[in-house]
């Protein structure tokens, strides 16, 4: 892998100063290590389903990612701190189902591997680094941030205690001011989608900046709330369907009271909070029933970039009606499996960021993507008028 398909990544500076990268790395790896500081043998076992990963494998994988790109130049021929690291922890080579059946090193040895790799990156950051190294260090930190968030939603899926403190309000404080819910009007405009060269670190799916003519639209100032969604679920129109939309997996009804599970705690459903863990498919059905539509990725980007007074963040990844496709000028960056394999029409773009997403990943141009049937990650949605 010494010859990359594209050298575009050399066009991504400026990078944050080395001291900032060092701080981000310490923070991100600190969160990972915090998760594993209290993990029991039982916690290391998770069911073999496609939305989960064995936690130990994930720790090895995110550590391997730092080492492979920063220290080994993306080349398997260069030595690793851990024997068989490529075979065990390269997600492009280790099939998902094999992560349960392949014998793994002990937790202690993977933690030791993590310590050695991260310490040697911190050492690099204490010296002078060039743009190429800065790119791979930032890539690996952001990759680790994504895996930290994946630990959080995996723990939510399994009803485990919250694994680390969220970056922004997650429970009671996330109550929205629903009284001020309004439609924000955007006149017809031409906007820039994607990212430009020289604007700092970007992912390959943001290449390149291009103009989009956007017709006028009206978008909700607030995301759809639990109260809105419950009304939809219990509406005669939904109940009359041959297969009505079911409540989210973390809801249950006891007597007349709806409860929602937040990690390992069942709490009364907060009607004023943004509804979460809704799949794209169910969000679409909500929209059809309520005669509204999901925004596309450009409309949601415009809303987020303008930070209009009435706009209220959901602290969730918000679904868009945009299928994840390459922008004009796309070419894969060295980590070729980041975007390219997922341009198959089965993924939808999400924008924003959850309470478990650090600010460095909450750029307006960032394009998250998940399969439309998934609802285990921290996702929600807002609507536009037809
Ligand atoms: Fe990964």
From TrEMBL:
Residues of the Sulfatase-modifying factor enzyme-like domain: 191-300, 315-383
Xref: PANTHER family: ERGOTHIONEINE BIOSYNTHESIS PROTEIN 1 (PTHR43397)
Official protein name in the record: Sulfatase-modifying factor enzyme-like domain-containing protein
Species per Swiss-Prot/TrEMBL record: Polynucleobacter duraquae
Organism placement in taxonomy: Bacteria, Pseudomonadati, Pseudomonadota, Betaproteobacteria, Burkholderiales
């Amino acid at each position: 892998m010494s010859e990359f398909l594209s050298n575009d990544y050399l066009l991504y500076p400026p990078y944050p100063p080395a001291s900032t990268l060092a701080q981000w790395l310490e923070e991100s790896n600190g969160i990972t290590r915090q998760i594993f500081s209290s993990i029991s043998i039982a916690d290391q076992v998770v069911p073999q389903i496609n939305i989960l990963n064995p936690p130990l494998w994930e720790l090895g994988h995110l550590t391997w990612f730092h080492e492979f790109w920063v220290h080994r130049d993306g080349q398997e021929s260069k030595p690793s701190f851990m024997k068989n690291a490529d075979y065990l922890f390269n997600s492009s080579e280790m099939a998902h189902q094999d992560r349960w059946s392949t014998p793994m090193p002990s937790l202690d040895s993977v933690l030791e591997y993590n310590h050695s790799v991260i310490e040697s990156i911190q050492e690099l950051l204490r010296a002078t680094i060039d743009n190429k190294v800065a790119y791979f260090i930032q890539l690996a930190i952001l990759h680790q941030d994504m895996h930290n968030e994946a630990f959080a939603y995996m723990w939510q899926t399994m009803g485990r205690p919250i694994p680390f403190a969220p970056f922004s309000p997650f429970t009671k404080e996330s109550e929205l001011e629903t009284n001020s819910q309004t439609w924000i009007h955007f006149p017809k405009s031409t906007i820039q989608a994607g990212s430009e060269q020289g604007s700092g670190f970007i992912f390959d799916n943001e290449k390149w900046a291009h103009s989009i003519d956007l017709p006028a639209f009206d978008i909700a100032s607030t995301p759809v709330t639990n109260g809105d969604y419950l009304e939809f679920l219990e509406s005669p129109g939904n109940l009359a369907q041959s297969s009505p939309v079911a409540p989210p997996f973390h809801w249950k009804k006891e007597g007349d009271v709806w409860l929602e599970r937040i990690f390992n705690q069942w709490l009364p459903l907060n009607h004023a909070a943004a509804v979460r863990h809704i799949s794209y498919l169910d969000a679409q059905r909500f929209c059809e029933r309520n005669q509204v539509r999901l925004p596309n990725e450009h409309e949601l980007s415009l809303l987020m970039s303008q930070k209009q007074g009435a706009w209220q963040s959901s602290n969730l990844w918000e679904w868009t009606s945009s299928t994840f496709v390459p922008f004009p000028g796309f070419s894969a960056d060295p980590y070729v499996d980041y975007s390219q394999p997922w341009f198959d029409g089965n993924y939808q773009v999400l924008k924003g960021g959850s309470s478990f997403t650090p600010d460095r990943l909450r750029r307006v141009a960032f394009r998250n993507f998940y399969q439309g049937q998934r609802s285990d990650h921290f996702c929600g949605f807002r609507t536009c008028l037809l």
